[in-house]
Structure formats: C-alpha cells, structure tokens
Amino acid sequence: MSAFFLHQRPIHNPFSFSGPNPLLSRRSSSFSRPFITNMSSIFTPTALLLLLSLLIILGVFLPWAGMPDFLFSSNSNTSSQYSKWRDYTLAQAASFVAKNGTVIVCAVSHPYLPFLNNWLISIARQKHQDKVLVIAEDYATLFMVNQRWPGHAVLVPPAPDSQTAHKFGSQGFFNFTSRRPRHLLHILELGYNVMYNDVDMVWLADPFPYLQGSHDVYFTDDMAAVKPLNHSHDLPPPGKKGRPYICSCMIFLRPTSGAKLVMKKWIEELQSQPWSKAKKANDQPGFNWALNKTAGEVDLYLLPQAAFPTGGLYFKNKTWVQETKGMHVIIHNNYITGFEKKIKRFHDFGLWLVDDHALESPLGRL
Questions:
Q1: Are strands 300-302 and 132-136 parallel, antiparallel or unpaired?
Q2: Widest distance between CA atoms in the chain
Q3: Residue 181 and residue 263 in contact, taking contact as beta carbons nearer than 8 Å
Q4: Which residues cross the membrane (predicted)?
Q5: Cβ(106)–Cβ(119) below 8 Å
Q6: Pairing of strands 300-302, 217-221
Q7: Which residue has the higher pLDDT, 222 or 24?
Q8: In this predicted model, what pLDDT tens digit does every residue of 57-71 receive, in sequence order?
C-alpha cells in the first residue's frame, strides 16, 4: 500500500526585510527588560525542580502507556484514515495482497487477535505473510490490523453485532462461520486462488509444495484415526451420518467452475440447515454435504494426513507424532474447546509463539 506524504516548501513573504527593522528594534528594546524580569521569576529553582519532576514522570509512564495517536495526527487525519478502511472493498484488498494469483485468508474477530498473531508468525517464517488477507469480523479488528499493517484487513458488511469469543456450537459461532463460503466464493470470482485457514493453526513448513496438480478443491480429513502414509487422495467415504468428516478449517481452492460450485452448494446447505436451540449447527457439516453432493462433478483432493493432521491426532497420539516426525506442515489446534485451553495446549507443545517472537509478526506485539 503506497503511503503519501505532503512535502512543504518555505513560503516566500514579500513583506519581509533582509536588513534590520527600525520599528521592530524600538519595540524590542522597550519590552526586553520586563520580559527578562518575568522570565527570571518563572525559572526559579522551585519551578525548575517541578518541571524536571514532570519530565521524569512522563519519561517513565508514557512508554508503558503507549503514545496516543492524537499526539501525532490531527482528528481529521485519523477520521479520514478510519473512513478509508471502512470503505475498503474485498476486491481492492484481494488485489493488494495477492501474490502469484494467490490469497491466504482468515476470518477474525477482536478476541482472537492473539491467535491471529501466533498464526502470522508461523506464516512469516515460511515467507508467505505478504499474501495474507484478514477478513475482520468487527471494526476494532479492521482498524487495528490496518493501522499496523496497512491494506491487509477488510470488513465485508454487515459485521456481526457481538465481539465476544463465540463458543463452538453457539448461534454466534454459526453466524460467524457461515459467512465464510461467501467470502471465498467472492475471491474465486475475482479470479484468485485462495487458501483459507482458521487462526488456531500453526505452520511448521511451507504447505504450497503439497498443493500439487490442478485440482479444484484441496482439504484435510478431520478424523483422528491413523491412515497409511500412502493413503488415497480421494474424498473419504461417508460416515454414519451419510457424509464424510472433512475439516472446513483448511481449504485451498482454485478459481474453477468446480470450486465455485462447491462454495455455492455450501451456502445452500447452510441456508437449509440454520442454527436452532434444538440443532446447534456449525459450518462444517454443510461443507461436507456440499463435497459429497458435488463429488462427481468436481476434482477433489485429500491432502496427506502426515502433513496436515487434525488436533485429535497430533496432540493425542505421541507414537504417531514420533513416527511421522519431520513430515508435519500445518497443525490445527482443534478437538478442544475454550480460548484458554487452546492457548495452554499450544504452550505445552511449544507452538505458542507470541510471547517470545511477537516481533516476527507483521503486526508486532499486540
């Protein structure tokens, strides 16, 4: 994103004089003595001591509090900046971040900014952070990200009302995640490849070499049962509920008619199975129904389990982790609910990076 600055040149004053001004000299001499006397009374030892104390206090506390924005920019400039990001469109944002025709997307609300930063650090280590687009689900996230990393966040109206950390299975969680296929379909229609990640993931290696071939949709199995290393890349057969159990949290799509068909079908499934107190739906069953119902028309590709394991396998099967050491690419911290529980698990496995490596994130320390 280009930054524009106003360079001011000195303005020539036609009424200025290069030589001394007699009138100014007389006025200066007449007022110099009272002025000096007043200044002497102001800078007494007591006053100087009070001034020095104030400077020490400001020097101690301001670095901790952070310098407020208004000290550096006028209210009109800040308002104009916020207005700019409020009007920023998904098409503009995708065009800005896309590299080699690809965009990496996540959707985040304000409570999950620590997870966003943790995820970004892991992506930055693989040199893919520049193609990341944060779809902000509230204005606080939109402004925070774009203030620190201009152009990398966009809000697609309307923003959900609540800014709380939604519990899995809640109506708020459904409202939040059900917007996802529309965002992805829009990006596909703009002509970009798009990778979607939940931000409770960590990259241990570059995933792009695994996106081989020219398939329409790439995805990961959400089952914890161990597969052979040479397992099939076809869509797994349906389970007891009549559909497969594919994770909707790691998807790669090419801008093909097949990928667009899956997204449209996913949207239809979510509309036909809305959240209710009796049936606490989430977005993943709809994605699986969409895959199942379009499998004969769309080129689908199941990514290798050893590289993209579900949390139910990676965090719970130590033997498997040792047997596949060095093969892991993206780790998903699922099969556990709760904000603090996810953070603790990342800590326990050495995957919580923000405490010691925040400066590696494009957002810095939040």
A1: unpaired
A2: 100
A3: yes
A4: 42-65
A5: yes
A6: parallel
A7: 222
A8: 555 444 434 333 433
Burial class (CB in 10 A: 0-12, 13-18, 19+), 351: middle
Alpha-carbon span 43 to 90, nearest angstrom: 58
**204 and 314 Cβ atoms separated by less than 8 Å:** no
Mean per-residue pLDDT, 120-134: 98
User: Who's near 351: CB < 8 A, 6+ residues apart?
Assistant: 118, 202, 331, 333
- CB-based contact 134:145 (threshold 8 Å): yes
Which residue carries 């152009």 as its tokens?
151
Q: Is pLDDT larger for residue 333 or for residue 174?
A: 333
Strand partners of residue 300: 217
Higher-pLDDT residue of 144, 20: 144
pLDDT digits (tens, 9 = 90+) for 71-89: 334 455 656 677 899 999 9
pLDDT at 164 over 80: no
The residue assigned the tokens 């995805």 is 219
Output the 3-class SS for the chain. CCCCCCCCCCCCCCCCCCCCCHHHHHHHHHHHHHHHHHHHHHCCHHHHHHHHHHHHHHHHHHHHHCCCHHHCCCHHHHHHHHHHHHCCCHHHHHHHHCECCEEEEEEECHHHHHHHHHHHHHHHCCCCHHHEEEEECCHHHHHHHHHHCCCCEEECCCCCCCCCCCCCCCHHHHHHHCCHHHHHHHHHHCCCEEEEECCCEEECCCCHHHCCCCCCEEEEECCCCCCCCCCCCCCCCCCCCCCCCEEEEEEEECCCHHHHHHHHHHHHHHHHCCCCCCCCCCHHHHHHHHHHHHCCCCCEEECCCCCCCCHHHHCCCHHHHHHCCCCCCEEECCCCCCHHHHHHHHHHCCCCCHHHHHHHCCCCCC
87: closest CA among 152, 156, 189, 150?
A: 156
Q: Using alpha carbons only, what angle is made at residue 301 by residues 118 and 134, rounded to the nearest 5 degrees?
A: 30
Residues 338 and 226 sit within 8 Å (Cβ to Cβ): no
